[in-house]
Amino acid sequence: MKKAKDGATRRLRIASVLCLFFMTVEFVEKSTSSKSGITYTALQTCGGKFGESLIAHKNVRVFSKQKMITYGPNFLFNFLGGYFANSLAIMTDAAHLLSDFAGFMISLLALWVATKPATTTLSFGWHRAEVMGAVMSVLFIWVLTGVLVYLAVQRILSKQYEIDAQVMLLTASAGLIINILLGVILHQKGHGHSHGSHPKKKKGKTKKSQVSPSSFIILEEEENVNVRAAFIHVLGDFLQSIGVFIAALLIWFKPSWAIADPICTFIFSLIVLGTTLAILKDALIVLMEGVPKGLNFHILKASLLDIPGVLAVHDLHVWSLTVGTTAIAVHLVIDDSCSSQAVLEEASRICSQEFDIQHSTIQVETSSEKTAECIQCDEPSK
């Protein structure tokens, strides 16, 4: 009687995992059936910046929604598969997917929160909501991973595994198929859109950008970058799925090798920590008001010094309000014979067009004011 009950329970588990697998495949197919996660749009604008920001904002929202729809069912599938199989390796794989899913949810939430207007208390608005959310998400994933590592250690010490190798193998095989499907779709998109003749868009370069009221903003290159990044990410998930699959095969053919499950948990936990550590590092740079990645402090300072009439640049500070939104504050010492308004306009143009800085506070001082040696000004040590 007990044997028949166990058999029925196993069949129910397998049926549930299969049902979730086909649901996940359907979600993946639907979420990636559109031409791309980022729409390449040509928009004629007055000055360009507003139109580009508006389109990019909309594209990020569409891309995050599609990735969330893809990773959500995939995470649920792996979580339940790991639960039914009693496999910590699959649960750790699910934790990796959860970190991706949480990241896309935070992006969507941040896009919504960022639309809230600035207040007298929050003069910059809610730009850093995404960064704070990312930090909390990483900390949550670390706690979850720590729990899984603790359980893996307990299993090794107690030597009590009780893993359903059949469900584990089925879940691992399905995970491989899903990642192969995602990889093929993303590879086809990246290949299909890589032959365009549109100009590439570079940021943070000192080369002068030509933006006129009739300029057409082409976002195809950014779309290709996102597709390639997603493909590389799926490739990493695929390699992790291979590890789970190999462990499942070992346990299936040699049940005495069930220790492979907690060992995989340790390896995958290191992968999760490694990937989320990069996210935490970027978030902390923003919170510590560090110079944005890709912007060279010395090149920016040299560009400001090259402005005719500028004698010195000091108290230069560049930081990110959030990822992709940069601010600058600087003092420019000019010759007494120069027009402060002309210098201010040129400095603003350089910051905006050549370095893509959205918020600039520029203080122009004459040499006769003798403020170049301002004792309150902070200069970087290197």
From TrEMBL:
Membrane topology (UniProt): Multi-pass membrane protein
Any single biological process term in GO: response to zinc ion
Its localization reads:
Cytoplasmic vesicle, Secretory vesicle membrane
Give the Cation efflux protein transmembrane domain ranges. 75-288
- Record field: catalytic activity: Zn(2+)(in) + 2 H(+)(out) = Zn(2+)(out) + 2 H(+)(in)
Q: Which UniProt keywords apply?
A: Cytoplasmic vesicle, Ion transport, Membrane, Metal-binding, Transmembrane, Transmembrane helix, Transport, Zinc, Zinc transport
Pfam families according to UniProt? Cation_efflux, ZT_dimer
MF GO annotations: metal ion binding; zinc ion transmembrane transporter activity
Q: Which domain of life is it from?
A: Eukaryota
GO CC annotation: plasma membrane; transport vesicle membrane
In this chain the Cation efflux protein cytoplasmic domain maps to: 293-366
Q: Which residues cross the membrane?
A: 12-28, 68-85, 97-114, 134-153, 165-186, 230-253, 265-288
Give the family this protein belongs to, as stated in its UniProt record.
Answer: Belongs to the cation diffusion facilitator (CDF) transporter (TC 2.A.4) family. SLC30A subfamily.
Q: What's this protein's name?
A: Uncharacterized protein
What is the species listed in this Swiss-Prot or TrEMBL entry? Pocillopora damicornis (Cauliflower coral)
Q: What is the lineage of its organism?
A: Eukaryota, Metazoa, Cnidaria, Anthozoa, Hexacorallia
